[in-house]
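Final report, results section. Input specification for complex C-07:
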Amino acid sequence: MILSTVDDHDQRTALQNDPLRFGVGARITVAVMSDRYADIILGALDSVDASGLSVETGDVSTFVGGTERDLLRYLTDLSSAIADTGSHASISVLLSRGCPGEVVCELPGGAGPRAVEHPTGRDTDRHATAEWALYPLADEVTAGVEPDHMRDIYAAIDLAKENDTFRGSAHFVTRLEGDLGRILETAVAGWTLVGRSVQHVTSHLTVSVNSPSHAHV
Amino acid sequence: MILSTVDDHDQRTALQNDPLRFGVGARITVAVMSDRYADIILGALDSVDASGLSVETGDVSTFVGGTERDLLRYLTDLSSAIADTGSHASISVLLSRGCPGEVVCELPGGAGPRAVEHPTGRDTDRHATAEWALYPLADEVTAGVEPDHMRDIYAAIDLAKENDTFRGSAHFVTRLEGDLGRILETAVAGWTLVGRSVQHVTSHLTVSVNSPSHAHV
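Structure output:
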């Protein structure tokens, strides 16, 4: 996965500080279970403030690149706009940082982890349920930082308990439930926390809003 | 991630040969963009042969556990049943093997990779587009097997080129396009191929069927 190595401290710092070059971003798939899905999705996308972000809409997902804080704001605004319509919807989010490419990382190896404060979310007054997976992908020492992803995963779980979204484990995923904004906060914060010591971290979150089964599940 | 170590060869082989104990399975979220989504999803789930598989339906996704071959058959039958309705739908699939739990693996460390033939899919005569991510998660030597996930990822890409689903790279994912059944084959085969040398491998696939934008994208 390593194409070249960054030895220069200044170059490394520049990479870590530039969210787009470091590959900080999300892919978001919004699926609205209504005949009016196109109007609802386009209306929500149009209503959301994308300032500071690079946005590319595709037929499978929308790519959004930028800082962790701007991404959480965008995800929260977009998801709550969808939830506000009252339609049942499934929102799938892929978060990635530390590897702008896919099969082969384009980021020079040894860039090192990007350590930033995890962003704080907001209440949306919309209930949601979700399944969450968090993947630390490069477990070697980069730029002299010893990875400790279990410490950081437990810190993420602690945060999910504090904001009352943690509901335990299921096959392959962690179950989250609660305020939609706090669920998104949990996923973005966990991903950011693990990224304190691991360069390449991805996370996948599937959120269900306005589900007819929520009342009895 | 390692709770205990399996040193005994027979015990290791028994773990590798039991798909449920090895944690071979999928979580599937089907989102149908129609007012009739509940009837369509329940109808498709009821029509599919789940023999040989363990199925648990939840409000965010359906868990399916079993062999790679049975999983690919189930995924193909379910997705083509959805596509056959003509409704636009998004199908998200999480594939996992080698770690039945989530935050902390429940499988004793050192079980080693499960090496099986990658299953063959079938044509469905339904066009789809998809985004695919493949994650080798435990890169250490387990049970004496040296991981070589780049070799196996390239073997997966070669297979995607052979079955004409590979369309290149985008941010964080590989773009797949073509027959729905061949797209699912690519994802399941790639995940199985990387699993030849890596114990814990997950893969995420988001598929779009009957998209109004497919004609011009």
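Chain A has one domain: 9-216. The mean pLDDT of chain A is 89. This concludes the modelling results for the funded period.
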